Amino acid sequence: MKKYNYMLVDDDVAFCILLKEMLKNLTFLNHQGTYNKMESLDTIISENKPDLLLLDYSMDTNDGLSFLAEIEQPPTTIIISSLDDLFLQEFPEYIREFIWKPELKQEELEQKIKKALKIES
Amino acid sequence: MSNFVEPQHKFSENPPHILIVEDSTAKQLLLSNYLKMMNATGEIAKTGEEAIQHISSKSHFDMILMDLKMPGMDGYETSRHIRNIGNDYCKNIPIIAISSGAVQDLKISGITDFISNFYDFENFYIKMREYLVKTANSVNSKETIEVTSIADTITNISPGNNQFIKDFSAACIDNYNEFLDDLTDGLKHNNKELISNASHKIKALNAVFKLNNFQHDIDAISVDDLEENKKESLLSKIKYQTTNILAQLNSIKK
């Protein structure tokens, strides 16, 4: 089975540790890196070309989305957030799914990632 | 002994009052220093007989630290006597034995638990906190503490993965400390953005640990038109609960 490289971007270190541990169970994924700061992230993404980006919507220092718009070929992205009203907003097409942090569940996580990557179950 | 005490190793409010039952002057000094470092207060009884006098006096203690080896009435016998006084206070007060050697069956004597390595301050603090929280909980049932499942939750995410347990607990400690600092600052300076960010950022972890009532309190304090006295009372409750969560996380981290 093909392995998909993913990157995790969130300034919440505890959440990153938790999510990375949960994603270990998904054998089709390969962890490419975790980043807690937005600094140089556009370059890192452009150079490493992850298949999937798990991105916190509300990073402390920057809007989690604006830098993506500047990347030539933004990766398939899943937004992770604790904000309640996130679903009311419009997002570009490379944003495939949303994960609401307070309802993080293993099965849903797998389902959404497979859907975003267009992997058939 | 380190002079540096992290803020989470201090009792920030309602300093507990502890009875130290110990015949050795050196250990009396060590334990008194520990209490000072934790912002707790204490009284010393040099013998079992003195301990019974103290406990029967007007002073109210939240815990007894009991040396087991003492001339005359030892720690086991003293504890039995205290339990036999018969009132609820003497039946329920935590008696924590301090011993560097082997211990006999503690429960027969009514001893709640023991601290083996009390020269390790953090170890000492964690054990103290564990029983002081239980006491506060039984005294004030309104303070809903939901922290008992934190250890189980973390362990069950990745059973047997000690590195994950350690790293995740440490990161959670940072998050809860940051949350409390931001919330306190936000309320102090009426900075709504800081309050709202603090509340949002901690939401995910509270959900992981199923701390629903705790999150409910946090949401309630973020409401704009909350009366000042209610705000203070809620903040005090949130601080208390956060301290308990931190104590649990600290014990897991080890």
Overview of this protein structure:
Chain A is α/β, with parallel strands linked by helices and 121 residues long. A five-stranded parallel sheet of chain A has the order 2-1-3-4-5, with helices on one face. Chain A is globular. The mean pLDDT of chain A is 86. Chain B has 254 residues and is of the alpha/beta class. Chain B contains ten helices and five strands. Chain B has a five-stranded parallel sheet. In chain B, β1, α1 and β2 form a beta-alpha-beta unit. In chain B, α9 packs antiparallel against α10. The longest helix of chain B has 27 residues. The two termini of chain B are 19 Å apart. The chains are: A alpha/beta (121), B alpha/beta (254). Chains A and B meet through α1 of A and α7 and α8 of B.
Could you list some keywords that capture this structure?
heterodimer; A: 121 residues; alpha/beta; 5 strands; 29% helix; globular; B: alpha/beta; 5-stranded parallel β-sheet; 10 helices; disordered N terminus
Helix and strand arrangement:
The complex is a heterodimer of chains A (121) and B (254).
Chain A: E1 4-9, H1 13-23, E2 29-35, H2 41-48, E3 52-56, H3 66-69, E4 76-81, E5 95-100, H4 106-117
Parallel strand pairs in A: 1-2, 1-3, 3-4, 4-5
Chain B: E1 17-21, H1 25-37, E2 41-45, H2 48-56, E3 63-67, H3 75-84, H4 88-92, E4 95-98, E5 113-115, H5 121-139, H6 150-157, H7 162-188, H8 192-208, H9 212-221, H10 228-253
Parallel strand pairs in B: 1-2, 1-3, 3-4, 4-5
Helix pairs in contact in B: 2-3, 5-10, 7-8, 7-10, 8-9, 9-10
